Amino acid sequence: MNDKFSEKPPFYITTPIFYPNGVPHIGHAYTALACDTIARFHRLDGREVLFLTGTDEHGQKMAQTAEKEGVTALELATRNAGVFDKLWTALNISYDDFIRTTEPRHHASSREIWRRMATNGDIYLDTYSGWYSVRQEAYFDEKETTLGEDGVRREPLGSPVEWVEEKSYFFRLSAYGEKLLAHMEANPGFVAPPERRNEVKSFIRSGLRDISISRTNFDWGVKVPGDESHVMYVWVDALTNYITAAGFPDEGAERWHFWPADVHMIGKDIVRFHAIYWPAFLM
Question: Which of 19, 134, 189, 200 is the most exposed place for a label (fewest CB within 10 A)?
């Protein structure tokens, strides 16, 4: 760490990593500009800043889009990650690191966080059946879905869901409800604004269920340690990017002093993943 910053604590801010199955839109630019403004402020205030952005390149949605275009998933990811990077250059986004989840450093980090969750007793193998949205890369209870007049069942944001049955590894999210609520009570600024925090707390109080964290019906993702017939559910892989950039699992890495992050800037549609799943994985 540079001595000139030693009088003030470091500051770590992240955008969500963006899904490169298509080109950027105004929402991506808005998020990057908001984070850029905050990062520049803290640099002017004399703090050492790590500003992270990047692309979330695994998952069934990427594999399906690549197949439709007649290219490999990695070719699609590389092409569209470049488009995001060019846009950030055009907008003068002052990021310090652009992470791609296909990078070797991220695969190593994701596999290590999986191993630690498994060692902690939080992962077990079972069979999953339920409604899955390829677009949202998320599972939904039937009560969260609606059947349209066209006969298509959809999740709350409107994307179609399909019935999935397969062997899957599960994370014991049900064990973390009280711990998460206690953390939020002790840290009232953990989720902001307040209405989103209240939504998260209400969701936790309604009862957390264990979540599926692996897939077997496609192979475009980070392989599960010890069972490479499974790839990690994209949100385990994607969320881990934030700690990958700090150097995990090397806690002596040059950037490790930035961890944990000060701000994860996200959209309201991914609050559940960041405010419930991510801290539970880290616990």
Answer: 189
Fold held by 3-172+210-282: Rossmann fold (3.40.50)
Q: What is the DSSP letter of 94?
A: -
256 neighbors 22 (Cβ within 8 angstroms): no
148, pLDDT greater than 70: yes
Handedness of CA 100, 118, 169, 201 (dihedral sign): negative
Question: Rounded to 5 degrees, what are φ and ψ at 280?
Answer: -65, -40
Closest CA to 175 of 237, 249, 124: 124
pTM: 0.88
**Proportion of the chain in helix, strand, coil states, percent, rounded to 5:** 45, 20, 35
Per-residue model confidence as pLDDT tens digits over 256-278: 999 999 999 999 999 999 999 99
Here the tokens at position 138 are: 């998320």
Mean pLDDT over 8-26 rounds to 92
Indicate the SS3 state at residue 44. helix
Q: What is the DSSP letter of 273?
A: I
Q: What is the C-alpha to C-alpha distance for residues 192 and 200, in angstroms, rounded to an integer? A: 10
Residue pair 35/14 in contact (Cβ under 8 Å)? The answer is yes
Nearest to 243 by CA among 95, 99, 58, 138: 99
Helix or strand run (H / E) with residue 60? helix 60-69
